[in-house]
Amino acid sequence: MKKIITKDILEAWLDNVRPYAKDGKVADYIPALARSNPEDLAVAVVDLEDECVSAGALESQFTLQSISKVLSLAQALLDNGEDYVFERVGMEPSGDPFHSIYKLEQLNPSKPLNPMINAGALAVTNMIHGVTPDEKVGRLLSFIHDLTDDQSIRYNEEVSSSEFGTAYLNRSLCYYMKQHGVISGSVEENLDAYTKQCAIEVNIHHLARIGAIFANEGKDLNSGRQILPRHLARICKTFMVTCGMYDASGSFAIRVGIPAKSGVSGAVVGSVNGYGGIAVYGPALDDRGNSVVGLKLLELLSNRYDLSIF
Ligand code: DON
């Protein structure tokens, strides 16, 4: 690490940002997420030697939600290669909210603008190899087991079925894309795989380790094994910069400057090349669906430790 971050510092900063939680609201459009406790805050930093410094609610488990989109993209690229994937999903920021259908109807051919918005992520899930939804999710889970070095990670069935039962907008996006030939096969099965991938459950340490492996050019922190080829890790990090925080990606790049991805569970993962991974968790969200406390904490960390990549 460039400068030493200690547990005491992280604890003090968590206390500083705690009051901001009241400015946000936990996601309630996925019924199981509405029960999250906005007071549960956690932060972890994992460096390239696999050393972890963490503070807060370390025992909290949360679901990846949109953070899974970076990992499913990596899996789809591993399975199909860049040409195949980017024929079906674009590389440009949308400037729209994550669940928007607006640009899909405007563009011809009707290809989602990028893999981080819901439309793009649903198309990416469709490309992951596997005959059944469980086979696709199983392959994504094995990749996540490698990244976290923890074989016990699973998806939370209560969260996935709660989302599956209420995901009318994501269903609409899928049916629209099916009509236009962007996705193939059963829409319900695609939604099944997608809601399970979003419900993969981790803790703050797992998430920071994932960020660290991306920062380590896709190599395992201990063995040096290339879990993900360097150029694919780069593609994922670039999407984190341009689209990771949706229609707040520009202001986040200016204020924080760290490739990062958020999820509506309130988690955010950041990845700083040559430095490590940073994960923050705080379920109260702003109106863009990003963690209020998480953003504040990342801004403090980035400024104090000079982590902006720009
Ligand atoms: O598809 C959805 O709406 C959720 N499963 C994930 C959305 C999400 O995390 C957006 N991020 N901030």
Automatic annotation (TrEMBL):
Organism taxonomic ancestry: Bacteria, Bacillati, Bacillota, Bacilli, Bacillales
Keywords tagged on the record: Acetylation, Hydrolase
The protein, known as: Glutaminase
Subunit composition and interactions: Homotetramer.
MF term (GO), any: glutaminase activity
Lineage top rank: taxon: Bacteria
Primary enzyme class: hydrolase
Binding, substrate: S66, N118, E163, N170, Y194, Y246, V264
Pfam families: Glutaminase
Family: Belongs to the glutaminase family.
EC identifiers of the protein: 3.5.1.2
Alphabetized SUPFAM superfamilies for the sequence: beta-lactamase/transpeptidase-like
Catalyzed reactions: L-glutamine + H2O = L-glutamate + NH4(+)
